Amino acid sequence: DTKARRVQFAGRPSISYDVLSIDIGITPGSEQVPGAREHTIPVKPIDRFVANFDAMLERYRAQDASTPLRVVIVGGGAGGAEIALSLHHRLEEERTSRGHHQLPPAEITLVCRGQLLTGHASYARRALIGIMKQKGIKIVEHCTVVRVDKGMLTVEAPRSGTHSQNGGSTQGKGEGHQLQQQLLQGNNNTVPFDVCMLCTQASAAPWLKLTGLPTDPQGFLAINECLQSEGGPPEVFAAGDVASCAKHPRPKAGVFAVRQGPPLSANLRRFLSGEPLEPFVPQSTWLSLITTGDKYCVGTKGWIGLQGAWLWSLKDYIDRAFMRKYGEDLPDMMKMMSGTGAKAQRPPGPPPVFGAAGPEALALLAESKMRCGGCGAKVGASVLAAALAQVHPRPISRPDVVMGLESPDDAALIRPPPPGKLLVQSVDFFRAFWDDPYILGKIAANHALGDVWAMGAKPVSALALAVVPLMADRLVTEELTQLMSGAIEVLNESGCALVGGHTCEGPELALGFSVTGEVAEAGVMSKGGLRSGQALVLTKPLGTGTLLAAAMQGKAKGRWVMGALSEMAKPSGKAADILASYGCTGCTDVTGFGLLGHLVEMTKPSQVHAELFMQSVPLLSGAQDTLTAGVTSSLHAQNARAAASVHNFDQVLQKHPQLWPILVDPQTGGGLLAGVAWEKAEACVQELRENGYGSAAIIGKVAQPGNAGSPILIS
Q1: In 3-state terms, what secondary structure has residue 706?
Q2: What confidence tier does 334 reach under pLDDT thresholds 50, 70, 90?
Q3: Are the C-beta atoms of 566 and 695 separated by less than 8 Å?
Q4: For the packed helices 573-581 and 678-690, what is the interaxial angle rounded to 10 degrees?
Q5: Please, which pLDDT band fits residue 407 given cuts at 50, 70 and 90?
Q6: CB atoms < 10 A from the CB of 351, how many?
Q7: Nearest-10 crossing angle of helices 78-98, 46-61
């Protein structure tokens, strides 16, 4: 919404912006071909492609020795060629590892709408056609896919004399035409397949045309030389494959997109500071390196063409050097935070961005030098009211809440639980660890509810405690709206009514909740409820502490962090219900003190000892990598004191020197640790996995106190 300056999303609140930069990339045009979405594997987005590729490998490994796997790749660009050749190499490796007689060679066919590698140097085309022919990869050129059904492509076949497989034209009876007729079944113009991958001419996201932003005839965002919307709002920029500059047209390729990063960053800063923008002219010639899958490469630049294994080494070096910019070569965040890293020198006076932002920003800068405490630090009533009015979804109401947000007073009024039930109260609060307030709100609410669920209770009401940093009123409103929308979404799903709270100004964003719940006296699950002979069941994997620490230092992969956030936001209410249904009496949520610390807290009141199965403890993806790299949470040193409770810790330290810290890793939004009768534990874990807790596992057992003074044994 360019008029309101908001980005709208499905499933979460919209976000306001002062300046917007769009770089969402492009995806294969599966929408343009009927059936392509249902029956093909797009190569983008890459995470979905990887999952589908793994499934295809499993299918190939199970293939009957007499039936080859038929793989069709649609797309005659560099991507399609690389996919075909790399896939051939990967499947041949599978055959070698399994024995050639057990797996038949796969039949790989590359279908091109025009010629293979249109727009590339003729040298690359000739070289790759020869390599594919040598490897047995079939090429079908000048064939347009018009429909995809399960196991079958329908194409528009070329007219005689317009198709080729060797770079020249055939006259209807040549090699390309004969291959065409062999592949197309009868007069139906169909190509059968077992697996079809889509690597076609990419297209822009359809929603871009709905924004009102200027686009080119293909639907890509039109930009000027300064990477700014051409003829659109001046505060909107775009870069990468999603953008198109009429003055400097270039192919949709990463070699151009990556060069736009520095000038985009510079022009965004110039725009925010009120400075003139500077034009960017992309390179007119470029190095094109196409791998053949077996550490061999075909390269061109302008009229020059080369090939060889040494070119693959060059491509590998270039690719890895680029990726290092997003990992190993990032500035040392720990040094920067400690003040020992390099700092940019800034001239005296307010930064230019404050002047460009107007009088309100300059006033805030002046006021920031001295801020009041006490009630003078409260967020203003009008700002709070505006934020609550924009929150979506709205908080649920409950019959046992007499006075809450809908009829605000000095305090909420809640009816006591009925006879036979107990009141449960808990509080949790932490500073922000993620810069998306909506996600933070979800995780903070889920984390606070964990204590109530661990007691076997149902949450009834919650009070919010929020701290927001000094900023303009409209930004405070935006921050609180995002924060509370995420939190209320979780509270509502849990049947918990938000009944009030307190919001004040502070040095950084923080959020917590005081939660009230109720539990039947006979259904209480407590830390002191473990019984000898029970299995120890953990419902979620460990590793949020080390992964968040690694993310702060720029040492965590994106997919690791996203996986951790997903687990942190996963409610444990259903898990608590399942544990209770299997007779669980002892339970706690694994949070700040880590698995070992919370287990020790359970053994003392239960008067039991426990054995942990080290190899059975589930880990978040990437947690072992970050621990091996020596990355631990700032709470690690204090939590590690729990190691004194492990009577064979010296052996553990010797056997697992890099992995043992996972046992004291502080968890945010962690899972439940519970005691379940040994004979019921496997069924319990299976039901947990079927209900979304895919990493649930039996990680140990409860035992009678032994002669050892320390209550924990790790095996």
Answers
A1: coil
A2: low
A3: no
A4: 150
A5: confident
A6: 14
A7: 30
Q: Could you give phi then psi for residue 584, rounded to 5 degrees?
A: -65, 135
Per the CB < 8 A criterion, the answer to whether 280 and 227 are in contact is yes
β-strand 510-520 against 458-468: which pairing, if any?
Answer: antiparallel
What phi and psi values does residue 194 have, to the nearest 5 degrees?
Answer: -100, -35
Lowest mean pLDDT among 153-162, 486-495, 499-508, 522-531: 153-162
**Residues in CB range of 6: below 8 A, 6 or more apart:** 14, 15, 16, 17
The pLDDT score that the predictor gives to residue 65 is 73
Tokens at 259, concatenated: 């060069």
Collapsed DSSP state (helix, strand, coil) of residue 350: coil
Give the E-state strand segments of 58-100 in sequence order: 70-74
User: What's the CA gap between 169 and 165, in Å, rounded?
Assistant: 9
- 256-279 pLDDT, tens digit each: 888 999 999 999 999 999 999 999
- Cβ neighbours, 10 Å, residue 560: 21
Cβ(538)–Cβ(590) below 8 Å: yes
What does the pLDDT average to over 502-507?
91
For 396, the token pair is 């649920």
Residue 692 and residue 570 in contact, taking contact as beta carbons nearer than 8 Å: yes
Beta strands in 219-286 (DSSP E): 221-223, 236-238, 243-245
Of 453, 461, 463, 465, the residue nearest 414 (C-alpha): 461
Q: Closest Cα to residue 580, out of 453, 701, 426?
A: 453
Size of the chain in residues:
715
Buried b (16+ CB within 10 A) or exposed e, 508-521: ebbbbbbbbbbbee
Contacts of 45 (CB under 8 A, 6+ apart): 27
pLDDT single digits (tens) 149-186: 999 999 987 655 434 444 443 333 344 444 454 555 55
Q: Tell me which residue has tokens 């320390």.
A: 710
Q: Which residues contact 352 (CB under 8 A, 6 or more apart)?
A: 273, 274, 275
Q: Which two tokens stand for residue 625?
A: 């990598």
Residue carrying the six token digits 């807290």: 601
- Could you tell me which of 405, 433, 387 has the C-alpha nearest to residue 569? 433
**More confident position, 254 or 634:** 634
- What is the DSSP code (8-state) at residue 489? H
Joined together, the tokens standing for residue 596 give 């070992």
> Which is catalytic among the residues 375, 496, 587, 684?
375
Residue 12's closest CA among 432, 481, 461?
A: 481
Query: Which residues, 6 or more positions from 634, have their beta carbon under 8 angstroms from its beta carbon?
Result: 549
Nearest to 439 by CA among 375, 471, 484: 484
Cβ(458)–Cβ(517) under 8 Å?
Answer: yes
| CB-count exposure of residue 367 (10 Å: 0-12, 13-18, 19+) | exposed
What 8-state DSSP symbol labels residue 159? P
pLDDT at position 59 is 85
Can you say whether the dihedral through the CA atoms of 677, 679, 682, 683 is positive or negative? negative
- Evaluated on CA atoms 201, 202, 207, 212, the torsion sign reads negative
| Rounded Cα–Cα distance for residues 36 and 707 (Å) | 66
pLDDT bin (cut points 50, 70, 90) of residue 392 is: confident
Q: Let me know if 375 is a catalytic residue.
A: yes
From residue 43, how far is each of 49, 71, 132, 207, 298 by CA, in Å? 5, 14, 20, 21, 21
Could you tell me where the DSSP H helices lie in 300-347? 309-324, 333-338
* CA 521 to chain CA mean position, Å: 41
Q: Given the structure tokens 């995806």, which residue do they identify?
A: 27
